[in-house]
Amino acid sequence: MPELSPTPRTTLKRRPQRGSHDLATIEAILDEAFLCHLAWQADGEPCCIPTVYARVGDVLYVHGAAGNRALRALRDGATACLVVTLVDGLVVSRSAFHSSVNYRSVVVYGRAFEVTDASEKQAAFRAIVESVIPKRFADVRPPAPKEIDQTLVLRIALVEASAKLRTGPPIEDEADYARPGWAGVLPLALQAGAPIDDPRLAPGTPAPDYVRHYERPRPELRDGAR
Ligand SMILES: Cc1cc2nc3c(=O)[nH]c(=O)nc-3n(C[C@H](O)[C@H](O)[C@H](O)COP(=O)(O)OP(=O)(O)OC[C@H]3O[C@@H](n4cnc5c(N)ncnc54)[C@H](O)[C@@H]3O)c2cc1C
Questions:
Q1: Which of 9, 99, 105 has most ligand 1 atoms within 8 Å of CB, for mutation?
Q2: Could you tell me the distance, in angstroms and rounded to a whole number, from the CA of residue 161 to the centre of ligand 1?
C-alpha cells in the first residue's frame, strides 16, 4: 500500500514520529470513524462543523441539506480540511504536564466539489448510510428523486492527508516515576448499547443483527495491537 506524499500542509511538526502518511493507516482510521469535523474559511473567518462522511476508495463524501452553509461554501472547489479523531484511552500521568490521550486521527486537505452525476450521487448516499450502519442500505427506503434534489453531496479527494497515533503508557520525567499513586492508561472505546424500539414500531419486529451486534470496523491499529 503506498504512502501519500507529505506536503507543506501535511508535514507533522511536533512529535513527527507519531505521524504517518501510510495510506493503509489513514484509510483504517477513516473507516473506523464515521464522524468528522469539516473546516473551511468564509470571509476570512475560520468555520468548523461536525458531520458524517464516507470513504469510497480515494474519495471522501459529505452531504447535507441544499441550504447547508458549509456545503454551499465549499461546493465550487474551495479548500476544506476534514479531521477525524478516534479516542483510544486516557493517559493517566503522574504529572499534569504529561497527562495525555491515546488517539488515532487523520487530517485531510482538499478542494471540495459538488457531486452532480446522478449515479455517483446515489452511490454516495448509499456509502454515507453504510458508513454509519454497515449493511443498512438494503433495508431502508431509497432516497426519492425529490430528496436527492434537496441534498448536496460533496466529494473531496483523499490525496493530501496525514495520520497521527499516540499509543502506550505515560511518558514521564524520570524523577516522577518515584511518585506514589497510580498511573497508566484507561482504555476508552465507542460501544453500542441495547437497541431501543421506536415507539411506533410494529409489534414483534426484531432489530436486525447489524444493529444488535453493532460495532465499528476495528483494524489492528489500537493500543496493544501495535
Ligand atoms: C484527541 C487528541 C487530543 C490531543 N490533545 C493535544 C493537546 O492537548 N495538546 C497538543 O499540543 N496536542 C494535542 N493533540 C495533538 C495535536 O492534534 C497536534 O498533533 C499537535 O498540536 C501538534 O501539531 P503541530 O504543531 O506539530 O502541527 P500543526 O502545524 O498543527 O500541523 C501540521 C500538519 O501535521 C498534521 N497533523 C498534526 N496533528 C495531527 C493529528 N493529530 N492527526 C493527523 N495529522 C496531524 C496535519 O497534516 C497538519 O496540517 C491531540 C490530538 C488528538 C487527536
A1: 105
A2: 13
Q: Which segments of 137-221 are extended strands (E)?
A: 151-157, 160-166, 184-187
pLDDT of 220 over the 90 cut: no
Residue minimizing CA distance to atom 4 of ligand 1: 101
Residues touching ligand 1 (Cβ under 6 Å) are: 9-10, 12-14, 85, 87, 101, 103, 105-107, 162-164
C-alpha cell at 55: 470513504
Q: pLDDT (tens digit, 9 = 90+) per residue, 67-80?
A: 999 999 999 999 99
Bridge-based pairing of strands 59-65 and 76-92 is unpaired
Ligand 1: centre distance to CA 164 (Å): 7
> Which tens digits make up the pLDDT trace of 103-139?
999 999 999 999 999 999 999 999 999 999 999 999 9
Confirm if 97 and 66 have CB atoms less than 8 A apart.
Answer: no
Name the grid cell of 138: 438494503
Confidence tier at 30 by pLDDT (50, 70, 90): very high
